[in-house]
């Protein structure tokens, strides 16, 4: 369903993604893990038509995201790291806008909106503006919205960031059940290893722009002789803390702070 | 078509729902009309220029349309900040539809707000020369809205943060308003000021409004119309181009 071959992305001097290859099978839940700044979001952007790779090829459902932008976009849903809802409008209106933008026929849009909002426990509050929703509700709405146009692939970029354990648990239950009932392929990133262990059938670990390991959770644990995925992850990526490359403003602030002392 | 419509509808719905904001944004035009219209009125009259309220009302209408349309374009900055922009940019629709829906929404909102101010002007005592003058004036309102929705979109596509917004406000939007002849007649100006007013697209908009509403025009309505159409086409083109180059 997704095939990346020798994918490279340079930003000037910096190589964010360095010769990455992987394959995601149809109907699979695939976790893409890595420390901050490892190249996860850059990879997702290349898979979802938002960034052009420096070199290498990507295929989604057999199509090149750069050449067949519109067709590829119809085939996936995406939940970004940061919220992307229209917060002045209601949950129902957010679904409506999405349905129209994705050319879902009206009747089908109305049916699916109701079904998905019920499934994600948002139906009762469908006519409330999204700005009054909690973080967990907003996330659920974004995922429900991502499913509205019956995508073949759903991208989830750290969907559980900042959620409490209850919301996280519920969110994955929903995603799993939709993965089973609609056969949608799920490509996710997360920093919570227990989640990846629980929901993903296969995992790829990326570090410094390169894939350092690939396999099922059990295989990764066996490969590193660890009893948990967290330990396996640390064994593969080391335990030093990665700072995402700071912007020049941050660097300047650091510099000023240093001299004030 | 669906995409254009739904994004247009979004802008209009947002406007209609922000009742407090609509009322608040009537405050400024009202202040100009009352404080300047009646405050400077006697001086204006004594210098032989007729009623200042009659003179300033088209300027205040132009100001309202300018502010509303340019801010709707700059509103892209908010869409970027709060994330909704990404939802539209990754949707399977050409970017040109997105930018058309958004700018037409901005134009509609500016027209609605402009209509409210027309009503306020009529209540304050402004009298257009004929009854047909009002629909005629709507042509110029629409052109002003198109020009500045285009400019706003161009700016909003490039602006990265809120600091930039203040800069644009003080060094672009306010000068466009003050140099447009909304508040003073364009005759007998010092040549430097004259050059600035001639370069300001709003000058032609306000002049067109004044020409259509009270039959008093500096450049002539044909010049006003032609200039506004040309500038609108250029700025809408620029806005669409810069929008198409936004990176997420």
Describe the structure.
- The complex is a heterodimer of chains A (261) and B (248).
- The radius of gyration of chain A is 19 Å and the shape is globular.
- Chain A has 10 helices and 9 strands.
- Chain A is α/β, with parallel strands linked by helices and 261 residues long.
- In chain A, the strands form 2 sheets. A 6-stranded mixed β-sheet of chain A has the order 5-6-7-3-8-9, sandwiched between helices. In chain A, strands 2-1-4 form a 3-stranded antiparallel β-sheet, with helices on one face.
- Chain B is mostly helical and 248 residues long.
- In chain B, 80% of the residues lie in helices and 0% in strands.
- Chain B contains 12 helices and no strands.
- Chain B has helices spanning 2-17, 19-39, 41-46, 52-74, 76-82, 84-89, 95-124, 133-158, 162-178, 191-199, 201-214, 221-244.
- The longest helix of chain B is centred in the middle third of the chain and has 30 residues, at 95-124.
- Chain B is globular, with a radius of gyration of 18 Å.
- Chain B starts with a helix and ends with a helix.
- The A-B interface holds A 45, 48-51, 70-71, 73-74, 78, 80, 82-89, 93, 96-98, 100-103 and B 2-3, 5-7, 10, 13-14, 17-18, 82-94, 247-248.
What's the structural blueprint in terms of helices and strands?
The complex is a heterodimer of chains A (261) and B (248).
Chain A: E1 2-11, E2 14-24, E3 29-33, H1 40-47, E4 55-60, H2 69-75, E5 76-79, H3 91-101, H4 106-119, H5 135-147, E6 153-157, H6 165-182, E7 185-189, H7 193-199, E8 202-207, E9 210-215, H8 217-224, H9 229-237, H10 248-260
Parallel strand pairs in A: 3-7, 3-8, 5-6, 6-7
Antiparallel strand pairs in A: 1-2, 1-4, 8-9
Chain B: H1 2-17, H2 19-39, H3 41-46, H4 52-74, H5 76-82, H6 84-89, H7 95-124, H8 133-158, H9 162-178, H10 191-199, H11 201-214, H12 221-244
Helix pairs in contact in B: 1-7, 2-4, 2-7, 4-7, 4-8, 4-11, 7-8, 7-12, 8-11, 8-12, 11-12
């Amino acid at each position: 369903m997704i095939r990346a071959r020798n994918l490279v992305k340079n930003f000037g001097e910096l190589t964010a993604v360095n010769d990455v290859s992987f394959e995601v099978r149809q109907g699979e839940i695939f976790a893409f893990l890595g420390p901050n700044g490892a190249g996860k979001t850059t990879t997702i952007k290349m898979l979802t038509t938002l960034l052009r790779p420096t070199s290498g090829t990507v295929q989604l459902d057999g199509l090149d995201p750069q050449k067949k932008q519109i067709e590829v976009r119809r085939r996936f849903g995406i939940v970004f790291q940061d919220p992307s809802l229209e917060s002045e409008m209601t949950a129902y209106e957010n679904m409506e806008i999405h349905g129209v933008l994705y050319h879902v026929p009206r009747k089908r849009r109305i049916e699916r909106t109701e079904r998905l909002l019920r499934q994600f426990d948002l139906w009762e509050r469908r006519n409330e503006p999204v700005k009054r929703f909690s973080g967990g509700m907003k996330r659920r709405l974004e995922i429900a919205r991502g499913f509205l146009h019956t995508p073949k692939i759903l991208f989830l970029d750290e969907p559980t960031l900042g959620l409490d354990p209850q919301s996280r648990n519920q969110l994955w239950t929903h995603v799993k059940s939709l993965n089973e009932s609609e056969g949608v392929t799920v490509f996710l990133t997360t920093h919570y290893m227990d989640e990846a262990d629980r929901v993903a059938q296969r995992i790829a670990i990326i570090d410094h722009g390169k894939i350092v390991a690939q396999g099922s959770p059990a295989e990764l644990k066996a490969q590193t002789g660890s009893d948990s995925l967290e330990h396996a992850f640390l064994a593969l990526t080391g335990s030093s803390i990665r700072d995402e490359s700071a912007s020049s403003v941050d660097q300047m602030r650091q510099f000023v702070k240093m001299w004030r002392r | 078509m669906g995409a254009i419509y739904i994004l247009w509808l979004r802008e209009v719905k947002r406007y209609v729902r922000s009742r407090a904001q609509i009322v608040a944004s009537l405050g400024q035009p009202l202040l100009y009309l009352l404080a300047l219209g009646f405050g400077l009125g006697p001086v204006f009259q004594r210098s032989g220029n007729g009623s200042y309220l009659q003179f300033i009302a088209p300027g205040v209408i132009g100001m309202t349309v300018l502010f509303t349309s340019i801010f709707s374009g700059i509103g892209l900055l908010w869409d970027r900040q709060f994330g909704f922009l990404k939802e539209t940019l990754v949707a399977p629709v050409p970017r040109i539809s997105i930018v058309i829906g958004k700018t037409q929404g901005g134009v509609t909102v500016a027209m609605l707000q402009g209509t409210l101010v027309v009503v306020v002007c009529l209540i304050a005592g402004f009298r257009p020369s004929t009854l047909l003058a009002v629909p005629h004036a709507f042509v110029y309102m629409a052109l002003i809205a198109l020009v500045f929705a285009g400019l706003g979109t161009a700016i909003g596509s490039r602006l990265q943060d809120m600091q930039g917004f203040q800069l644009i406000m003080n060094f672009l939007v306010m000068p466009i308003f003050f140099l447009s002849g909304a508040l003073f007649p364009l005759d007998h100006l010092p040549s430097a000021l004259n050059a600035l007013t001639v370069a300001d697209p709003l000058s032609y908009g306000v002049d067109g409004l004044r020409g259509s509403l009270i039959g008093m025009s500096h450049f002539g309505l044909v010049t006003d119309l032609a200039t506004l159409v040309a500038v609108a086409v250029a700025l809408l083109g620029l806005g669409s181009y810069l929008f198409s180059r936004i990176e997420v």
